[in-house]
Amino acid sequence: MSGRHVAAIVAALLFAGGAAAQEQSIIVQSTTSTANSGLYDYLLPIFKDKTGIQVNVVAVGTGQAIKNAENCDGDVLLVHAKPAEEKFVAAGFGTERTDLMYNDFVIVGPASDPAGVGGMDDVQGALATIADKGALFASRGDDSGTHKKEMALWADSGVDPTAASGQWYRETGSGMGATLNAGIGMGAYVMTDRATWISFANKQDYAIQVQGDADMFNQYGVIPVNPEKCPSVNVEAARAFADWLVSAEGQAAIAGYKVADQQLFFPNAPGN
Amino acid sequence: MRDTLAMTSVPITAPRPAGPILPLAVRDLVLRFGGTTVLDGVSFDLGPAGCTMIMGPNGAGKSLLLKLLHGLIHPTGGGIDWAGRAPAEVTARQALVFQKPVLLRRSVAANIDFVLKARGKTGDRRDALLDHVGLAHKAGQPARLLSGGEAQRLALARALATDPEVLFLDEPTASLDPASVLAIEAIVSAALARGTRIVFVTHDIGQARRMADDVVFLHRGRVAEHSPADLFFPEPQSAAARDYLNGRIVV
Amino acid sequence: MQSLGDAFGLAVALVFSGDADLLEIVVLSLRVSLTATAIACLIGLPLGALVAIGRFPGRNAVLIVMNALMGLPPVVVGLLVYLHLSRSGPLGFLGLLYTPMAMIIAQTILIAPIVAALSRQVLEDLHAEYSEQFRSLCLTRVQTVQALIWDARYSLLTVGLAGFGRAVAEVGAVIIVGGNIDHLTRVMTTAIALETSKGDLALALALGLVLLVIALGVNAAVQSVRMTAARQAYA
Questions:
Q1: Which of A164, B6, B162, B197 pairs as cysteine with A169 (C-beta 3.0–4.6 A)?
Q2: Which residue does chain B place closest to C235, by CA atoms?
């Protein structure tokens, strides 16, 4: 095999499949919770049928998604951490933020419920009880939207769990799914968004222990990345996707996504 | 075998570069490795033609002397003069056949092609060369599956492919069967007849008698004797050579 | 442990269902990792060969660095490539982030040192055998390198295999620079990571088994080539 042969093989491998028709495509920087729940697998084909635009989703924690978007590595940001999103827009990285949909957070735990918080609807009280009993609690610890929300709830409950980091408070530094796997593996309570929990397949004997507190509301927003900051943005396609999501049609599609007969996300874009 | 060689129709040599590299003058050659002195003041002259046998007991430094002459290693002291040129300048105009042939992991033919191509020589001489050493029927076979005698003949053909003006042979027939020894001697004789200067290290006294025009006898790192063959074998001038030829262990 | 049995059944079912998504992921995995291996060989082999036959000041330092780079953490490589290919990075204008090309680049960086270091060892051993004969033939450095690489080709196949194994098995680099985008940059390992994070451990394990079978197939193919070569004393 001469060098020329090798070069030919490399070239063939490099461009194999690369010749597919160039279509309009955008990158959405989003959260693991929306991607893992299967929402995009349901929404994106509907959108593509209508517009022909290919939407590619990079699913990472909200913190990383925002950083990636600030690096211009995305056309649309779809995350759930309102203060951070507003900061993103204020800094000029996004054109405007629109409320898109919501679900809620829940705290799941083992059937044995070692802290005895089952059935509580006061999240601050439940967290304080967990801390008081020293029951294991697994946190994302990754600056994601869920993590930011969790930290805010701890602050409201008057407990600084990070003081017990490595003891009863375990920060996994991982995505939602990985943290659930880890938490279930060690018998710890975990705070998760409901959509991820419903579609999560490795529940074992875990169940929702705490839910229903208005403070556990989980709002998602959509933000097109600002072409003035990022000239590489596919402005029209990004605009089209964001507009479709908040349109009556897009909102109906979101409401129509169900897992095990349960609606995972509740559309609440203004004007619908 | 010599008769068949003469009938080879395709020429197996090509034109040579100008300017002779012979005669050779070796003066006070010293070679030390660490604390060991291998050669300790070797001096001799080689004329422009013929077959010189380098003989001597084990450890006399015969193989290392060949490598010094060929420019593969550098002496600790003394001089080697190929008609005014240093060994490294004339390496390309010489060839060395090692005791254990180093064959490429390719076919017999590819071993020859490799040298012809590396030296920018035309490939159509390959078949003639293989024919010349009696390996034409093995051209497509893996070189490293050849018998010892065949492997050494291939090494010889590869050496001849470079059209060497001086051909060094380092015990090429050690541990070969008698028929292979004669076949290799025939090939070397044919090269000699075409004017290639032969410098041949051997332990085989019978071979030396058959091939030598003159003999350089090394002993204890020095030239104990350098005589024409017709003098060396009947009347060796040095005690060491006399003992060696009589089959006594010489150290 | 119920997952293991489930996974095995699922793996078999997946393979025989001829699932188009699975096929797409497998093909992309092979395309990315084989391309990375080929490029890493084009870079690593000559580099390894030059160090193998070269005697130059600082050679030992080069050897140490080459061997150390074999242990490059994939996540670090992924981050470095991300920072360069990001739109805000120096090579952002190429628009390569979140494409298979980005994954090929990351894997190439990851395994080129492996190819260089391992081929250096193979070629140095062969050179010890050939060097005197080659010097007698007055070969140029380039001719020497070419001949060594060609004659060591079957041993070097194993070197390439080691590189391919690392490339096809790593997840840390490709998930950062590829983004694990469905139908675009999703490969076996990132799909496994995704299914694990969805808690679908049986499916994750089944994909792992498929990956294992692919690795076995590639290894078996190379091994059979080597055995043929060994019979001809070419290896």
A1: A164
A2: B105
